[in-house]
Amino acid sequence: MNTRILLVEDDERLAELTAEYLTKNDLQVSIEPRGDTAETRILAEQPDLVILDVMLPGKDGFEVCRAVRQNYRGVILMLTARDEDFDQILGLEMGADDYIAKPVQPRVLLARIKALLRRRPNTGESSSDESEAMVFGQFRISQSTRTASLTGITIDLTTAEFDLLWLLASHAGNVLSRDDLLQELRGIGFDGLDRSIDARISRLRKKLNDDPENPTRIKTVRGKGYLFSKHDWN
User: Fold this and answer.
1) How far apart are CA 7 and CA 211, in angstroms?
2) C-beta of residue 134 within 8 angstroms of C-beta of residue 229
């Protein structure tokens, strides 16, 4: 039971039931009912994953996510209101790695947690393996170290942003549809409404200094999807 999870949820009964289920599945769970104190705990304890509800006393989940993102290197999974696209997109904009709509079945939550944790870097492995690195001009991305840099400057990426960027770069020059991306990254198909990929693409473009009005590095192919350019990285 080495994986540490901080569950930030003010519904005491729901938090206890969720923690009990996750604990039975070999996860170490702590509960925090307030947003303002959660911020301090996240930065001090550095849990492997934070399950962060949006509606919290003291400080809401969006504020907490934005406040800790730069100095917290773990995974943030936000709990949002069902079918509230605004909540979902805003959470991703604040730096969340993924979101899941409430109410959520415990087994679905567990599956999402395991999927997110599988993509985390293993700090016990050597970072000298360059066999899983790709270079495009002055852009470099490494799977073994899960880092990306542009003109020698490391790009600050969330877990979800790195996964999307690696997937796009792995298919450089080819168009990937939203359905392709969602199936690979979240194990679900595109339902015509999910905006998570669009939100992450927008964030990546900003971090890659790509013109949002006329992007050349991650291009939008109207009606088809997104294309990572092999060029335009100088």
Assistant:
1) 37
2) no
